[in-house]
Amino acid sequence: MTSQQQFPDGFLWGGATAANQIEGASNEGGKGPNIADVLPGGKIRLKILTEPGFDFKMDTEKYRYPNHEAIDFYHRYKEDIALFAEMGFKAFRLSIAWSRIFPNGDETEPNQEGIDFYHRVFDELIKHNIEPVVTISHYEMPLHLVTEYGGWRNRKVIKFFERYVTAIFTAYKDKVKYWMTFNEINSALVMPIMSLGFSRLEDEKANEQAVFQGFHHQFVASSIATKIGHELIPDSKIGCMIIYTPVYPYDCHPNNVLDALEKEQLFNYFCADVHVRGEYPSFIHRYFKKHDINVEMEPGDLELIKKYPVDYLALSYYMSRTETADYSGMEKSSGNIITGVKNPHLKASDWGWEIDPVGLRISLKNLYDRYRIPLFVVENGLGAFDKVEKDGTIQDDYRIDYLREHIIAIREAIADGVEVMGYTSWGCIDLVSASTGEYSKRYGYIYVDKHDDGSGTMERKKKASFYWYKKVIETNGQEL
């Protein structure tokens, strides 16, 4: 398929990962344990993420912990980056593991071995003319900050985060221009454990109070990071990052339309409004009053948030969500931590995530109309079972079809006038799934011979999508 609509010059084509899902080497180089290290692999993980009562302890006799080894990017980064370069990546989104830099999170001086590791990774990327796009906190919170301080509920964590960002901005100021503060910050509305650092509380009212208090501390921390970043790296671009799932009303009944709007405001726009507009949105005050939520703030917090908004808005997009005010007798869907009712017009992936490329165009139009700042699609992809054929090939045409339709949606949004900086598809190399801790849920252009039972050689193989994406980048999206 050939398109006459050009992607802009300098469009950042590439792929995205997270340290805890690719690096492995969980106890090497002075790294301390983080939240992902204590999450077991398998379906039990989703239960832990969304239900109360997790104690942040490991049971190695009962469970596997795939994040400890992941795909061993820590030792194989040169090989992997060479493959990204072969595809023609312009950008690679990765995260820094906070506990590699500050193993406990509350030290006063950074761990030099951790600093040196990311220097080597960034140098390798720069050697191949690949722009690093760095997430500062991507579900990588040091475990000590969870068990000793209660995660982001505790205002003290702001100071620890400030120390962390100062260390990495100082270390990498000549190597990294694009930064994001928190990965999928709004995910905490559903699962606070990975981004806010505490297990969902039994009492729903107490849980909401804790979540919004944690959010406020993160908003302050994000503004501090933006301030420091602009001071230490004058040409830097500091962004925030959200999960975006457009919310459709199941039908045109006004109650369902209003219900969908209110759910979209809370999930999709609350965190982004504070980051981008620099203030709490009007709709949230009624929500706080209705739910008896009282967010403690210190003098100067709101002024700081207002003074240091983000430069761009990054988003993950995997699916849309269909909602109704009354779930009685309705078939529920499953998806990326968010459930709604089943959309009869959409097909779903092997993991039940509804596939909706048009929803990505809707998302980009909605966000740009609301904020008028550059957007960056930093996650999008298809988790699927891949099969290695007898001749060693992996024919993942289903993934190509998925990605093609979503890239077309971005192209059409750009034609609509939306400013999109780039596209880094999720899991450009197979990795450990965040939500289920599985290897078998594969996203990559590059197959990694590693399996849920722990077996595998870690050998890398190029899938059919590898060659397809190479052509997409080569032609700046002209040949899809």
UniProtKB/TrEMBL annotation:
Keywords for this protein: Glycosidase, Hydrolase
Top-level division of the source organism's lineage: Bacteria
Record carries keyword Hydrolase: yes
InterPro entries: GH, GH_1_N_CS, Glyco_hydro_1, Glyco_hydro_1_AS
Enzyme Commission number(s) of this protein: 3.2.1.86
GO cellular component: cytosol
A Gene Ontology biological process term: carbohydrate catabolic process
One Gene Ontology MF term: 6-phospho-beta-glucosidase activity
Active site: 379
PANTHER family assigned to the protein according to its UniProt record, in alphabetical order: 6-PHOSPHO-BETA-GLUCOSIDASE ASCB-RELATED (PTHR10353:SF122), GLYCOSYL HYDROLASE (PTHR10353)
Family the entry assigns: Belongs to the glycosyl hydrolase 1 family.
Record protein name field: 6-phospho-beta-glucosidase
Organism: Amphibacillus xylanus (strain ATCC 51415 / DSM 6626 / JCM 7361 / LMG 17667 / NBRC 15112 / Ep01)
